Amino acid sequence: xxxxxxxxxxxxxxxxxxxxxxxxxxxxxxxxxxxxxxxxxxxxxxxxxxxxxxxxxxxxxxxxxxxxxxxxxxxxxxxxxxxxxxxxxxxxxxxxxxxxxxxxxxxxxxxxxxxxxxxxxxxxxxxxxxxxxxxxxxxxxxxxxxxxxxxxxxxxxxxxxxxxxxxxxxxxxxxxxxxxxxxxxxxxxxxxxxxxxxxxxxxxxxxxxxxxxxxxxxxxxxxxxxxxxxxxxxxxxxxxxxxxxxxxxxxxxxxxxxxxxxxxxxxxxxxxxxxxxxxxxxxxxxxxxxxxxxxxxxxxxxxxxxxxxxxxxxxxxxxxxxxxxxxxxxxxxxxxxxxxxxxxxxxxxxxxxxxxxxxxxxxxxxxxxxxxx
Length: 373
What we know:
Na+/H+ antiporter like fold; single chain; mainly alpha
């Protein structure tokens, strides 16, 4: 198919997903993944086989993790990290420890694929938790801030684990580390002044200033064969206070990614899923989803009793959600050859259940604010 017509089709799918999502009150990402699966099966349009599609989806993944980091408020995370760290460790460690062993010894997966699966399934969806808390009007309460900080730290731990486990040793990786150690503090210190200096000028220089360090770090990560998740996430977090104080510049950057490329990321993830693998692995997906959710809840629940002291089941369900970071990790894994299409499909199915099941159960039966209204 002609490249422009293919892009037009993908944008049509993105718009359709938004319309369907608004009708059912769910995340558009879920429907973008499903529509990507449909177009991959029906027309054979798979991002791993189309270079420009793969590039755009990779760039979107970088932007998505950057935006996730920028959503957090530096001052609140810094003030609550001691309280939220136990929740993060409880959410992250059990899955990372148990799931790879199960997949390797029982499922027969290689250690590489098993470890990648463990990292991908250990994350918590900041996007879902943030939306749920905002809709309940509790995102800025003490509990809401604590849970969001815990989600941030969980994904930070998962990103660090991905970088440590799958970063090939070499000079390129060392250059990436040194560049990150230089770029991150300099961006945090001087980006605000630069944005103020170019504010209001034609050509949207604010967007270019913010994208420059992001794309530079992503490029160095690509050369080193490392997922760009960690530097992008950290850069977003470092710039969070700067961007929150300059909502116009932040809005422009969000538009660049959310208005176009992020939808392509989720459609690309769906396009690489095999329907045959989903159907054939439905039992594995169900069992893996149940194990993942139960592991997170069993670990988070007692910790939340000590740190939050109320709404324990609700909090543990939110911490068991999954979506964006898991998909970013899996896309990296399939692009680097760490997992095959069947394993990718099974893990995507598991992540989708993790996005839906805990959220729906929490909202339906354990929402403390819904009960009080």
